[in-house]
Every structure is written in structure tokens, then in C-alpha cells.
Amino acid sequence: MITVSKIERRYKLSSNEFIKNYVDRGKPVIISGVIPSWNSFSQWSLKYFKQLSPSLNIYAKRFSDKGIEICSLTMEKYIGLIEAYEADFLNNPSPPYCHDLPLFSLIPSLIKDAQPFPLDYLPEWYWYKWWRYCQFFLGCSNSITPLHFDCLLTNNIFFQIVGRKQFTILLPEDAKYCYRKGWRWFLVNPENPDFNKYPEYKNARPIKFIINPGDILYMPPGTLHHVRSLDMSISFNIDWHTTKSCLNALAASVKGMPIQNSYYNFLLAMGLVFKIPSQLIFKFYKSYLNYVS
Ligand SMILES: O=C(O)CCC(=O)C(=O)O
Ligand SMILES: [Fe+2]
């Protein structure tokens, strides 16, 4: 088991090193120097998305103690809410958070803006139409994603394009100090922990850092993360398994993982372990991209 108290930052990490030193060791890392050559880095903004697809129907979420509330609205309406909030946050309501949106599939012209994509960080199985596995996060400053881990126990490569985000992460072995609720959510607020209610959290070793526009963050399977947008922000991630993480995730089926999640992991195992091409698997996997849990 590896203990980390601080996250490493590496410039243009080679895929060999990425896999050997970080993926295989379950160690998070921030990678700089990849995104700044992409068109998206200079071109993407909420205005740009609005111009491309004003009438696109999207959904946004509100997280609360009661669960996740989802609202549906057009891109134009949503960006309008964010612009109004950023211009005058005292007199405008805080907009919901557009969270986990498969925007490359909805606006395919965005794909060319994320090139050259570091495909060699991923197993070859994902290379064909890699962008289908990506999920976007668009939101105003102070949008928050509460503490959780990614529900299929996948690896996560997170691409920060516009704005900064503050992450507080905890390695999987600290989950036991964070007061789990259901499969993937946790009750502790790492930004302001209530030690009276959650005394075990004193044993946890949170790692807090900011990712800047142009940074890539790698989080190993089961990493707990709480995320605050410090600015209006555009990010996307790709959730992916290695053969090893996929088999570990399937084993978690007997440790409380919901059956629906095990179904998606089974599909990925068919691809990664039994080499069934993604062209055949994706039509069954696709619903995962709209799966809220
Ligand atoms: O950026 C965020 O607010 C949340 C990101 C996240 O949870 C993820 O990439 O899995
Ligand atoms: Fe997440």
C-alpha cells in the first residue's frame, strides 16, 4: 500500500511512466503540458458552447442531503443562468451544476478541439471513438460535487480546460473514516469537517490541491473526491478500466456494489479481458453515460 500526503505534478508524462509509476501503483498525479496545445484551451468558453448549440437540451444537478435533483433545460438557458450569477451573485440564484454530460457525442465538432488526445495513457480497447466515454462538467464558481468515489471503481483522467478547481481527495484506505452513505457517497464535508458528528475523520489523510486550466488529474480507482469550482469552469473526464481494475471492480459485486454497476463492469470485462471489440459492447454500455447513482 502506498501512502501519499501530497500530489505529484509532472510535465508531459510519458505513457510508460504514467502506467508504471501511477496507474500500477494506485497513485494520483497531476500532468501538465498536454492540454495547452489543444484548440479547446484557447477556444472553449461557455459562450462558445452556447453559439455552437443553443437549443441543445441538457440536464443539470443539485446535490443536497436529500439526494440529487435533476433539471432539464437548453444550453442557451443554462449558460444565461451562469452568466447572470457570475455577473451578480448576490442578486441571482445559484444555478444547478451540469455534471456528467456526454458532450462530445452531443456536439461532435468539439472532438477536434481535444487533439492530440493522450490515447496511449489508456488501454487500446478504448482507442476506437474514445470520446464516447467522456463526461463533461460545466458550472459556475462555487459549484460543488460532494465527497464520493466513481461508482464503477474505474480510473479517472480529468481534464481541466477553463477555470480552476479545488480537489480534496482521499485514498481508498481512508474511506472507512469518512462515513459512507449508500454505495459511493460520504457524509463528511472535507472542507469543514464536523468532528463531533464524524470523529473517525480525524484519522483520515485528505490531500487538498488546486488544478489549473491546462492540468490533467489522474485518480486511481476508489479515490474519494470532493470538488469545488473556484471559477466558472469547463472540464471533462474519462472513466476507464484496466484489466486489473475491472476484475477488482467485479469482485466488489459481493461488497455492496449495486447490480446495475456490476452489469456495466461485466460489459467492460467482456471487452478488456475477453477482447470483444468496443463496437459491439458500446451499445449496451451507452446507458451508463446517463446513469445517475
Ligand atoms: O468536477 C467535479 O465537480 C466532479 C468531478 C468528478 O466527480 C469526476 O470526474 O468523477
Ligand atoms: Fe467523481
Automatic annotation (TrEMBL):
Residues 111-257 form the JmjC domain. It holds the Pfam family Cupin_8. This is Cupin-like domain-containing protein.
